[in-house]
Amino acid sequence: MPEITILKRPRDEAVITQRMFFKKTARGKVIKVLRERYLRDDISCGVNGCKACSATAQTVLSHSGDTTHKEFPTGHYILPDTNVFLAQMDLIESNYFTPPIIILQTVMEEVRHRSLPLYSRLKALTTTDERKVWVFYNEFRSETAIVREDDETPNDRNDRGIRKAAEWYNAHLTLAHPPIRGQPNVALPKVVLITDDFANRQKAEKEKIPCISVRNYVDGMKNSDQLLDLLSATGSDEVEPTRAVAGRTALYDDYLPMSTLVAGVKAGQLHQGHFNANQYNYLEGNVPVPAFTKPVLLVGRENMNRAVQGDVVVVEVFNEREWKAPTDEVIDQEGKPSYDTKNDDAEDSEEEGDDLMVHEHESKALRAEHTKKAPAEKQPTGRVVGIIKRNWRAYVCHIDSTSLTSSNATSLGLQTVFATPVSRLLPRIRLRTRQAPSLVGNKILVTIDRWEITSRYPEGHFVRTLGKAESKEAEQESLLLEFEVPYRPFGKAILDCLPPEGEQWVVPPKSAAYPEWRDRADLRDLIICSIDPPGCQDIDDALHARRLTNGNIEAGVHIADVSHFVHPETAMDNEAAARGSTVYLVDKRIDMLPALLGTNLCSLRPHVERLAFSVIWEMTVDAEIVDVRFTKSVIASKAAFEYGEAQLRKDDPKLNDNLTQSIRLLNSLAQKLKAKRMAAGALNLASPEVKIHLDSSESSDPVDVEQKALHETNSLVEEFMLLANTSVAKKTQESFPQTSTASAAPTYKL
Amino acid sequence: MASTSKAEKAYIQSSLLSDPPLRADGRGLIDFRTIALESGIAPIANGSARVSIGRNAQDGGGGTEVVAAAKLEVESVGDGEGVDGGRVACSVSCSPTAYPLLSPNALDDLQHDMTSVLNATLSHPTIRPTNLGIIPGMKSWLLNLDIIVFSDAGNIFDAIFMAARAALWDTKVPITKSVQYRAKKGETQAMDVDTDETALVGSALDTRQTIQVADFELPDYWDEGVPLDGRQAWPVCLTLNLLPTLHFLDATLQEEASVPLKLLVFYSFPSDATPLLRGMRLLGTGASDLTQVKSLLKDGEKYARNVWVALEGKLKDEDFRRNQKARERFLNR
């Protein structure tokens, strides 16, 4: 008999056993939420070979910690405070940043509360295999759980929880390293609290918890040179307070607090939308909002108020008589008169003299433009009063070489330089780096950290270099980054979704015992072939046609059955959904699905058996559909043609085999189908396709561009794919009238 | 409520009138049975309490048992019953097991009677806490005070009011912060940088701005909030059972059935001021005259003060037990 004990939780202990919070719903109701909290003693510290924790837990932190840091020769683990993740995520994610990290639950929750994108990056960090990251659920371990005191702000409570966990860890490590008899006492590794919160550090020092600021920590690391550049600008504040911030004049208005923005938008006095910069005029942008048919125009830096392309902003619309019309003149950031660029030096651009000049110049350009416009073209005009969400990412830039103060290649001094983004929609970014001379002429990745009201340009930090500008690799990668194409290799979780047989996977012999054969038609004997562009590796469709005894024609389209390999809601499915499409570059492709599927198992290669989804029509010789059926199938393609090849074969009068006849049959049907489609009012919206010739298959440098020739067979494939789509659409609408989406164009009476 | 025969009633009446007065459980005329009180019994409510009067010490059975819970709800002022500055709505429901002899209709009537007594006293605008408003003229809290009678062994009104007072004492109102957007009237700030209009914006004396509060937020959602304003003011109820020539307190069911008239008085005792009579009510078939009521009020005030003092002490104990003590126990575990 198993003994069942009920851990009764008396109401007196509610303070400890329950966590209460209020939630305000979207409809404005306030809900009280209660969460039970069970404190336990078996939450592992995550250190390998810890004697005090249960051995069953999978630990990731090395036994002696990281011993390469100058300040902590006896080994250490780092325990970062929330502000480190909020401000220095690039640093933490860098491959050079290798110390074992302990992430507290309190910190995770705080990050989630403050910024969802950073939270998902943090989550991704905890799941990567390469990094030594341990998430410690401190709120659930009885020694480290804390209860909020009266008159304690949530922030203070969390800071206290973080310090408590750091203290516990350091005490716990003595248990993980029990003294061994006969050996001198080994020096213990430390758990170091990293925080940029001065008050928290002071309190930690008082409690004798090892702690350090981010900058001081990075300074002591062995590869500090690469890492110091990654420090975001916010982190450098305390090191250089000498710059007289207060003395500078504010160039922009402060943003309104978030709650005010939300209230204003709700009341309809403010408008929310995405900020679009004007790529021809850096002093102009617009924000499409639902309240107006035309987007709200923003003219001048002050009114754009530090918004960057893609940000979700809140705008205030001016009185109607102040509305303006957009310019159509090109005003270029770089094309400014020379006095401007010269004096617009990165270091001293805040000096008043230059400011006035820039101002005058800019407002002159604006005034000139806006006075001569007809009133009819005017559109709502306003200014940005706040930002709902920044959509800052890493931008591809190049260093503005004129902004360098010292171009000596060996100089390692810290300089402030301008990075000009490749995209014309973005402002120049000011960044501080030690590697400036070596970065000139390179494409680099830069992240924006902040944009102060006193600074004309946003401040950012260097992330990494992509390579020499105009080199193929650097340009290719910068294109991929600019268009946000995910091009990283597939992760382990995704590759784990592939069939374990890999390349050796075959369709099993026909038998009801194999699930592959369940509900599948055996179409292996049909004369099926595929027709694709030259060099195509992912053959996803194949065709066949044959005459039936009753004089009709049977035609079929076979699509690779990807759903057999990619199941819904798996890691592979999610990744493919996120990628959306395979991206073809001149000399390489970025797959949507791992290559094993795309170019092998889900490619209807000739002479092998493949799983497919088939649409099979019975048609009259005049291409009238008599019957259509849909089935899962197993096919074995007999040939894979290129368009030209198929065309030659069709036109060769000497050939008369089954395959050739099949192509001719398909072609004749396709022509009739096309004629019918055109008669029904179809549009031809095709644009010419180009082919890029490469030097040779080895060097893969493009040498020429050629327009692809269009063969009859192109149209053959196109016609049958259209037919398959329409048949499937009809069928889904018939079967699922409630849920299928059909685009119903209104019928016009002629 | 329990059926009591005429002979029983006559017997109880004559015992009470005898010298010295005799009661079935040996109490004096102005003695209460034991009262047990616990607050914070419903964690999901904003405030709650349970009161039982005359519970058996051995098995915890018997006695009058009442649970009160206060729940706050956001209400828009103007639509429906919403009132600027918030309001309190009370309701009493009786478990059918408390009154097994009553038909469902009779039970409804009883509940309604009890609700109206409670509402007349506690929902009165003069006693409304001042911190039930959220955004003036737009949003306010509706405080629903729900009371359930689980069993009735006499003196139900005293128990209901005690539970109500304890639950309201326990109620915490989440702190809200109204958010607003200052719209500038007339001249909007021109983009022309030559004018110094920027200097005017944000100045407190700028009269061109209208303040429009549109919404509110919870600045600290981990916090229970602050107690209801003026929680001292919630009254206690004292029931004087009147048998001509004498009165007695805390009647059992049989005793209640034997008296022709009951006088309910609702008193609160603000610390600095004179006692405040919040209301009174005569229940029953008998009659009474003004001079008698006057002297009864004087006695009632005296008894009510005793109840008030005892309740006050217990409520403070409860606050201490549930917060500080629990936290200390957590630290010393």
From TrEMBL, chain A:
Keywords from the named record: Cytoplasm, Endonuclease, Exonuclease, Exosome, Hydrolase, Nuclease, Nucleus, RNA-binding, rRNA processing
Acidic residues composition bias: residue spans: 345-355
Cofactor: Mg(2+)
Statement: the UniProt record of this protein carries the keyword Ribonucleoprotein: no
Compositionally biased region (Basic and acidic residues): 326-344
A Pfam family per the record: Rrp44_CSD1
GO cellular component: cytoplasmic exosome (RNase complex); nuclear exosome (RNase complex); nucleolus
Residues annotated as domain RNB: 520-749
GO molecular function, one term: endonuclease activity
Family, similarity comment: Belongs to the RNR ribonuclease family.
This protein's name: Ribosomal RNA-processing protein 44
UniProt source species: Suillus discolor
From TrEMBL, chain B:
GO MF terms held by the record: mRNA 3'-UTR AU-rich region binding
InterPro entries documented for this protein: ExoRNase_PH_dom1, ExoRNase_PH_dom2_sf, Exosome_comp_Rrp42_subfam, PNPase/RNase_PH_dom_sf, Ribosomal_Su5_D2-typ_SF
Gene Ontology cellular component annotations, sorted alphabetically: cytoplasmic exosome (RNase complex); nuclear exosome (RNase complex); nucleolus; ribosome
Keyword Ribonucleoprotein recorded: yes
The keyword Cytoplasm belongs to this UniProt entry's keyword annotation: yes
Pfam families: RNase_PH (PF01138)
Location(s) in or outside the cell: Cytoplasm; Nucleus, Nucleolus
Residue ranges occupied by any Exoribonuclease phosphorolytic domain in the UniProt entry: 31-174
GO-annotated biological processes: exonucleolytic trimming to generate mature 3'-end of 5.8S rRNA from tricistronic rRNA transcript (SSU-rRNA, 5.8S rRNA, LSU-rRNA); nuclear mRNA surveillance; nuclear polyadenylation-dependent rRNA catabolic process; rRNA catabolic process; TRAMP-dependent tRNA surveillance pathway; U1 snRNA 3'-end processing; U4 snRNA 3'-end processing; U5 snRNA 3'-end processing
Gene3D superfamilies tied to this protein: GHMP Kinase, N-terminal domain
Superkingdom as given in the UniProt entry: Eukaryota
Main location: cytoplasm
Keywords: Cytoplasm, Exosome, Ribonucleoprotein, Ribosomal protein
Similarity comment text for this entry: Belongs to the RNase PH family.
Record-given protein name: Ribosomal RNA-processing protein 42
Record lineage: Eukaryota, Fungi, Dikarya, Basidiomycota, Agaricomycotina
